[in-house]
Design a protein that fits this description.
Elements lengths: L1 H12 L7 H10 L4 H8 L3 H9 L8 H15 L45 H5 L64 E7 L2 E5 L5 E3 L5 H12 L16 E4 L1 H6 L8 H6 L7 H8 L3 E2 L7 E9 L2 E8 L8 H4 L7 H14 L7 H12 L5 E3 L6 E3 L50 E3 L4 H4 L3 E7 L2 H6 L4 E2 L4 E4 L9 E6 L7 E4 L2 E4 L19 E5 H9 L8 E4 L3 E2 L3 H17 L8 H8 L7 H19 L26 H26 L5 E3 L2 E6 L29 E8 H10 L24
Parallel strand pairs: 1-4, 4-7
Antiparallel strand pairs: 1-2, 2-3, 5-6, 6-7, 8-9, 10-20, 11-21, 11-22, 12-19, 13-18, 14-17, 14-18, 15-16, 20-21
Helix pairs in contact: 3-4, 12-19, 13-19, 16-20, 17-19
């Protein structure tokens, strides 16, 4: 009889009930899972799970049972929103209003309007064309070459009523195209507000031209008003995450009204905060509000301990205290309140609500898309609680020590190595994965040409992060390992035998002038002379060029995933949408693209600031993965504050930089093999060539109107290139002669010809 029961159970399991395909996809996305993660757990191919979600195929046992169990658990965590009840026959239903045309008006749309895509590109695309990833739907934009006045793209101002009958704190009517009408009623007034004082009254400028009256007389009451009435904030970016706290930006007038200094003293700037005994801090303490450990500085967080799932926290941004660094936010601090609200609101809606500097925001975006913990339902009580284990695909809640070769100098993990005092570690002891800074003297043939043309890779570090497999846990030390290009880690291997004069490009071998090429294995472009530590993408590229690799040892991470895919997608979509608003779209021909890029920021300087901030968020976020001590009384060998973050991961930073440098070198090699042209200088993501004409089209081949496969391609997408600048060959020779430096890196100055120490790369 038991055999019959088993047969019946198997028959029932073979027809396990599954939700519709669209619901399957919703449940996966709600938990922040990628298709690859689900496929890996069920031990099926990525395309199989994709087919289940599209309805093209249906799962079969035994995978069907496990898939049904996964969806059932997710449905408990993220129940579908019930459809609104249909109106009864005796209730009059008003006719729907005419939809607002979806053209850009200068007002950022709600974050719900741009869903986060988590599907990574294919493995083949990862190895060759990084830029050939999925792109968002085309964004309606002005004509690319029409330099319309900046004011034409801004929303009409909302005139503030002076009627005495209006009650304080009342919400003013927002324009029809304002994101203030978002789907989540908790945040209907947008993610942030710029608080100012006009005619003796405190007002808050929100996104979309919305203005709120602020009745608060003190800073504690301002915080209470923000949490109780302002309806500011932002929905969570991933299923297991949490909504963003409201952000208040205080102008100088608002600082004076609420008892804060307009600017910090030299001592306060060094401390990064106002003194603990300041009267405003005492007011907050009496009202039971707390500050984080960093105190009351340019980016202050004011909170009360959470009660259950209810979070009480407001963030302040004070531009006059240098909260908006001009290097990353341009002239944002000089903007009027309404325009500043537009700039920060556009950034917040498309990227996330700023949480500090652009570097901090870049790091926080990683965590927001992959929260360390998630809610699970208690089987006994039915209540939701935070899981004790980390969310799949995240870095978890606990910091992980790096491997010794990945550690920067002074890291405590090096204490056990008993290195001599003042010892300088070389490539065989330390991982040196950095961006390019390489240059060479020009050949006689190149000196006969007229121009030096610089091309720059769009969002190079973001493109390098896309589709990259990264370690999620601690490293494992392995002796004499067999190299696995799919296993993230650091490898000690000798690559000095790789000869760039004879390399494999695609499936065939080509002969090049290796003396005119930078080595892909060192930031300075020098050929390695012996064993050195490299990240996985660098060693994999040596294999791709046709050479064997035999590591002596490695620190590998068996728990891994594509941690930065969602991060890349979010930033890519923000960048492309903003560029489209500036008239630079993804469907332009090379000629039209160059025309559209000419002075594109001047068409709307405020959106130009947003573009600069997006780029700084990418570069700063990657850099902050290996943050060094910042004062704190630190001494070599001691831990510093950043080490306590799960996102302190120098191995991830090294892998992204390695992948970015390798992507660039791959294009340089293909370009040389096809055209016989070699770079004169490379700085980070900028490459300089000698040419007979001043345009990138005089350098980049477009045979039959199509770009060179695997080479450089003009366009706005991440991984494609734009024009960085053009100078005369005579200018370059005179500059090198003036500074007596035949290998002076001209890529650093190609943009405008001005000699500075600034890095003109992204």
């Amino acid at each position: 009889m038991s055999e019959l029961f088993d047969a019946v159970d198997a028959l029932l399991a073979s027809r396990a009930t599954l939700p519709p395909p669209a619901e399957r996809k919703r449940l996966r996305a709600a938990h922040g899972l990628t298709i690859d993660e689900v496929a890996g757990a069920l031990k099926v191919r990525r395309a199989t799970v994709s087919g289940w979600e599209s309805g093209k195929t249906e799962p079969r046992p035994p995978e069907r049972d496990a898939y049904a169990r996964l969806l059932d658990k997710l449905a408990e965590l993220y129940p579908a929103t019930p459809a609104p009840a249909a109106p009864t026959a005796d209730v009059a239903v008003p006719a729907p209003e005419a939809p607002v045309p979806a053209t850009f008006t200068g007002v950022p749309g709600p974050s719900e309007a741009r869903p986060l895509s988590t599907g990574p590109a294919s493995e083949a695309a990862d190895m060759t064309e990084t830029e050939n990833t999925q792109t968002p739907a085309p964004v309606t934009a002005p004509e690319p070459v029409a330099a319309a006045p900046a004011a034409a793209s801004r929303p009409a101002p909302v005139t503030r009523s002076t009627s005495s009958s209006r009650r304080p704190g009342a919400r003013k009517a927002a324009p029809a195209n304002s994101p203030a009408g978002g789907a989540d009623p908790r945040f209907e007034n947008g993610p942030l507000a710029v608080v100012d004082v006009e005619d003796g009254k405190v007002v808050a400028y929100c996104v979309g031209g919305l203005v709120l009256d602020v009745p608060a007389k003190s800073l504690p009451s301002l915080v209470d008003w923000t949490l109780g009435e302002a309806k500011l904030g932002q929905p969570k970016l991933s299923g297991p995450g949490r909504p963003a706290d409201p952000l208040l930006v205080l102008t100088e007038a608002a600082c004076e009204r609420y008892g804060l200094p307009v600017s910090l003293t030299a001592q306060e700037k060094d401390a990064g905060r106002i003194p603990e005994g300041h009267k405003v801090i005492k007011q907050l303490t009496r009202a039971d509000w707390k500050l984080t450990k960093r105190g009351f500085g340019p980016w202050a967080r004011i909170y009360r301990p959470a009660k259950g799932s209810e979070r009480q926290c407001v963030q302040l941004c004070i531009p006059s205290w240098n909260a908006l660094d001009a290097r990353f936010w341009g002239g944002a601090t000089q903007l009027p309140p309404a325009e500043l609200a537009r700039v920060l609101g556009t950034f917040a809606t498309r990227v996330m609500t700023p949480r500090g500097s652009t570097a901090v925001t870049g790091l926080e975006l990683m965590t927001a898309l992959h929260p360390p913990t998630h809610a699970v339902r208690d089987e006994e009580t039915g209540a939701l609680r935070q899981a004790d284990t980390k969310t799949p695909g995240s870095l978890g809640s606990d910091p992980v020590d790096c491997a010794p070769p990945e550690a920067p100098d002074g890291h405590p993990v090096l204490n056990d190595l008993n290195l001599p005092r003042f010892h300088v570690r070389g490539p065989s002891e330390k991982l040196f994965e950095e961006s390019y800074d390489w240059a060479r003297p020009m050949t006689d043939a190149e000196c006969t040409l007229r121009y030096l043309v610089g091309i720059d890779v769009n969002m190079a570090f973001a493109a390098g992060a896309n589709g990259l497999t990264l370690g999620l846990g601690e490293p494992t030390h392995v002796r004499n390992p067999v190299f696995d290009p799919k296993l993230p880690g650091s490898w000690l291997v000798d690559l000095s035998h790789v000869d760039l004069s004879h390399v494999k490009v695609g499936k065939g071998w080509v002969y090049l002038d290796g003396s005119l090429l930078p080595s892909p294995f060192t930031p300075k472009g020098d050929r390695p002379t012996g064993p050195a530590w490299y990240a996985t993408p660098t060693v994999a590229y040596a294999q791709e060029l046709g050479y064997d690799v035999r590591p002596a040892e490695a620190y590998v991470r068996y728990n891994h995933g594509r941690y930065l895919d969602g991060w890349y997608t979010r930033l890519r979509d923000a960048y492309l949408a903003t560029m489209a608003d500036l008239g630079v779209t993804t469907d332009l021909s090379p000629e039209d693209f160059l025309t559209a890029m000419d002075g594109y920021k001047a068409r709307d300087p405020e959106l130009g600031i947003v573009i600069t901030a997006i780029k700084a968020t990418i570069k700063g976020g990657i850099g902050k993965l290996r943050e060094r001590p910042r004062g704190e009384g630190w001494r070599p060998g001691e831990r510093w504050r950043a080490l306590e973050r799960p996102t302190w991961r120098p191995d991830i930073r090294a892998a992204v930089i390695s992948r970015t440098r390798i992507n660039l070198h791959r294009k340089i090699v293909r370009h040389a093999a096809f055209t016989g042209q070699y770079p004169i200088a490379v700085l980070s993501d900028c490459v300089v060539y000698a040419a007979n004409g001043p345009s990138p089209l005089d350098v980049l081949p477009y045979p039959d109107g199509k770009p060179l496969p695997g080479g450089f391609k003009l366009g706005v997408n991440p991984g494609l290139v734009k024009h960085e600048g053009t100078q005369k060959v005579l200018w370059g020779e005179e500059l090198r002669e003036k500074y007596d430096a035949p290998e002076l890196n001209l890529a650093r100055y190609i943009k405008d010809g001005t000699v500075t120490d600034a890095d003109n790369g992204e």
